[in-house]
Specification:
Layout (H helix, E strand, L loop, with lengths): L1 H7 L5 E7 L12 E4 L11 H11 L3 E5 L5 H8 L4 E6 L12 H13 L2 E4 L2 H10 L7 E3 L13 H11 L7 E5 L8 H13 L5 E5 L4 H12 L2 H4 L2 E5 L4 H6 L3 E4 L8 H9 L3 E4 L4 H4 L6 E4 L4 H13 L1 H18 L2 H12 L14 E6 L1
Parallel strand pairs: 1-2, 1-13, 3-4, 3-13, 4-5, 5-6, 7-8, 7-10, 8-9, 10-11, 11-12
């Protein structure tokens, strides 16, 4: 999403400098400079002094920190007297579902009070972080993610080609998901639901697109092997670059995550015109209109998920109607241009009433 925002803000008003925590994060864009703190993975470190030095050297007009991992940039920007400070929350980790330690909540409270603007990517996250940080919800805004509906659109030719590559015929029912192999994405529940469908005699294919650690992939493979019927009809595709084309190959997109901020893949699948079945968590209910553009279900309930998969399998007219509704809704509410315009107004200080103070060359730093 950071890459998309930078590409959208490509005019002369903005100069982007990205500060990453670790050296394994890259951005292939010659217009963007990347500064790395070289923080060792898995080790805690107090980053404020380093960030202060970098910010003072760069002299940005805006510092934008993202999520907990980058939140120390708020304090660093305050110390460095940056004119405009933004912090945003784009999701939460699995270990945060039951709340956060008081030290983290206290530091988040201080950072929220120090930032000029705080936003989340869903209303659900706004409520959650307002509670965790003991901040008035009115201090937090919502800025939804957006999707390029020209790139992510129905592509009949790509659909046929990708299905041919997989050995699927046009009339086969293909259910799938796209995302990293991680416990928070809950692939195990999707596999269990498809297994239930197969045991009832539903003829379908399962397509899992994404990658993860070797142990995570083996765990998923082992679960699939336990069902010979499922093993014959499941494909682990791995990581792909032509995401829009592969999403077109699906009849139904399933997002079974335990928690979500606002899923980009959910937006992309629906923009392509694929009905979505998503877990009733995070921002998913703000995207999927239950029974209209897709369905919502409890992420601990494989039986209900299996019934919803079967319902869309048996009713082609319903599937087509939901396909039309899904794309139409994404175009009206989550268009990429709308999101970029909001970022542009935010960084330019218009929403903060600082228009007159914003320099013509606006330096923007995003801390991951």
């Amino acid at each position: 999403m950071l890459r998309k925002v930078i590409q959208g803000l490509a005019d002369d008003r903005f100069e982007h400098v990205i500060c990453t925590l670790r050296g394994d994060q890259r951005l292939e864009d010659e217009r963007v400079r990347v500064v790395c703190l070289d923080k060792q993975s898995g080790k805690s470190a107090f980053l404020v002094p380093k960030l202060v030095r970098i910010i003072r050297a760069e002299k940005p007009a805006v510092v934008h920190s993202r999520n907990w991992s980058g939140i120390e940039a708020v304090m660093a920007a305050k110390i460095a007297r940056v004119p405009f400070i933004v912090h945003s929350e784009h999701g939460r980790d699995l270990n945060e579902l039951k709340g956060q330690p008081w030290r983290r909540r206290f530091f988040r409270h201080l950072c929220y009070r120090s930032a000029d603007v705080i936003f989340t990517v869903s209303a659900e996250l706004k409520s959650y972080y307002a509670t965790q940080a003991a901040i008035n919800p009115g201090r937090i805004r919502v800025l939804y993610n957006g999707v390029d509906t020209e790139r992510f659109r129905p592509m009949p030719v790509a659909r046929a080609q990708k299905r041919k590559e997989l050995g699927f015929t046009e009339d086969e029912y293909v259910v799938g998901t796209l995302g990293r192999f991680d416990p928070v994405k809950n692939h195990r529940l999707l596999i269990e639901a498809v297994k239930i469908c197969a045991s009832r005699g539903t003829r379908l294919k399962l397509l899992l697109i994404g990658t993860g650690t070797e142990s995570q992939r083996k765990e998923i493979e082992n679960q699939i092997r336990k069902s010979p019927l499922l093993e014959r009809n499941a494909i682990l595709l791995g990581e792909v670059k032509d995401t829009a084309e592969w999403l077109n190959a699906l009849d139904v997109f399933v997002l079974p995550s335990v928690t979500e901020g606002l899923s980009n893949t959910l937006l992309e699948a629906m923009a392509v015109g694929v009905p979505a079945i998503a877990s009733r968590v995070g921002g998913n209910p703000e995207v999927v209109k239950d029974g209209v553009s897709g369905y919502l279900f409890d992420p601990a309930d494989p039986n209900t998920l299996s019934l919803l998969i079967d319902r869309l399998h048996s009713d082609l007219a319903l599937r087509n109607t939901m396909s039309t509704n899904a794309r139409s809704d994404i175009q009206s509410r989550f268009e990429f241009g709308k999101m970029v315009n909001q970022y542009s107004r935010l960084y330019s200080g218009i929403e903060a009433g600082q228009t007159a103070e914003v320099p013509s060359e606006l330096g923007v730093r995003q801390a991951n």
